[in-house]
Amino acid sequence: SARPVTITITGAGGQIGYALLFRIASGAILGPDVPVRLNLLEIPQGLRAAEGAALELQDAAFPLLRQVEVYDDATKAFSGANLALLVGARPRTAGMERGDLLAANGGIFGPQGAAINAGAADDVRVVVVGNPANTNALIAASHAPDVPAGRFTALTRLDHNRALGQLAATLGSTVGSLRDVTIWGNHSATQFPDVSHATIDGESVPNLLSARLGGADAAREWLVDSFIPRVAKRGAEIIEVRGSSSVASAASAAIDHMRDWVQGTQHGWTSAAVVSDGSYGVPEGLVSSFPVESVEGEWRIVQGLDLSAFAEHRIAASVGELAEERDAVRELGLI
Ligand code: NDP
Questions:
Q1: Residue 156: exposed, middle, or buried by beta-carbon count in 10 A (0-12, 13-18, 19+)?
Q2: How does pLDDT run across 59-88, given as a tens digit for each residue?
Q3: Has the ipTM of the complex gone over 0.85?
């Protein structure tokens, strides 16, 4: 039988952690044949919540779950980790400047990157969920010089999935029939959800939108005035309706990201924030969202896509924000 895979989850006592743990233990990332060991990392004030979740994991009697450990020490928690989901982060609070937020998170993600460098398994793969996710991933990667840069990623799959949901609802299709939607840039309000290459059963989504909405101008207007802002600001919409932030959908997207990374993408591409190799003019080293396929356990940026002037402009704006965040953390000495 397969060897157990060790998965480290930070912020495991929080809300997203609670929504993640039970699905991971049921096999949602690695499939029904691979046993898992869970290492839960928390800060001292989150430890009891993580310990409580560990008790519940025991009570759920998942056949694949071989071990659960709870730590407040990053070095121990990342020791031997094959997969790491970095969920715990310092949230922005009222009156907090961006520099304060980046500094607080640098104090979390720098040491975690160093702990991954020191003790994670050779095949470690990391996804950062905690915000500002792209720049937190950059900080972690910069503290892990012995780990290939391609092993550090940030989550934009929730934005991607939100885009699929909106398109399916508008076009009366299923999310499973949609192919080749892209989120570009930062996991922030500047992100660019791009449907220009998307298809449903081989038909172009822009053409289907024109047919549905009464012409190309109406389709363009819908994309710019409704679709793009709605996807980018969906988090605020969820908070307003639900009374608290998105949790289960964020956890589900993190699982989709890891499952596709480990098991491969099957039908066209998806979106993930990966360390740029300079593709599409995104400066090398920035952790930016791209169209990606997972092949043999590695994310590969889909090459050679034609971009309209509109798309180039939107991508440049979001990438510009990432460059500013990188410059800010550099100035703070965090990378
Ligand atoms: P959540 O579990 O709800 O969220 C955790 C992180 O995920 C936040 O940074 C949040 O960003 C981010 N996130 C990313 N995408 C989304 C999305 N679409 N919707 C909502 N959140 C998203 O927060 P909790 O406060 O419940 O839990 C955080 C836990 O992390 C706490 O238990 C805390 O103790 C722990 N923690 C652990 C650390 C560690 O292990 N070293 C370090 C710091 C904290 P945003 O703030 O923008 O909503």
A1: buried
A2: 999 999 999 999 999 999 999 999 999 999
A3: yes
Q: Which atom of ligand 1 is nearest to the CA of 86?
A: 40
**Cβ atoms within 10 Å of 316's Cβ, excluding its own:** 17
Q: What is the 3-state secondary structure (H, E, C) of 160-184?
A: HHHHHHHHHHHHCCCHHHEECCEEE
| Start-end of CATH 3.90.110.10 domains in the chain | 157-327
- CATH for 157-327 (3.40.50.510, 3.40.50.880, 3.40.50.11750, 3.90.110.10): 3.90.110.10
Residue 295's contacts (CB-CB under 8 Å, 6 or more residues apart) are: 264, 265
Active site residue 187: yes
Residue 44 Cα to ligand 1 middle (Å): 15
Ligand 1 pocket test target in 15, 16, 76 with most atoms within 8 Å of CB: 16
Residue type at 232? A
Q: What angle do CA 276, 282, 288 make, to 5 degrees?
A: 55
Q: Report yes or no: 30 and 65 within 8 Å, Cβ to Cβ.
A: no
Q: Which residues make beta-bridge pairs with 38?
A: 7, 68
Q: What are phi and psi of 90, to 5 degrees?
A: -90, 115
- The pairing of beta strand 83-86 with beta strand 5-10: parallel
Which superfamily does CATH assign the domain made up of 5-154 to? NAD(P)-binding Rossmann-like Domain (3.40.50.720)
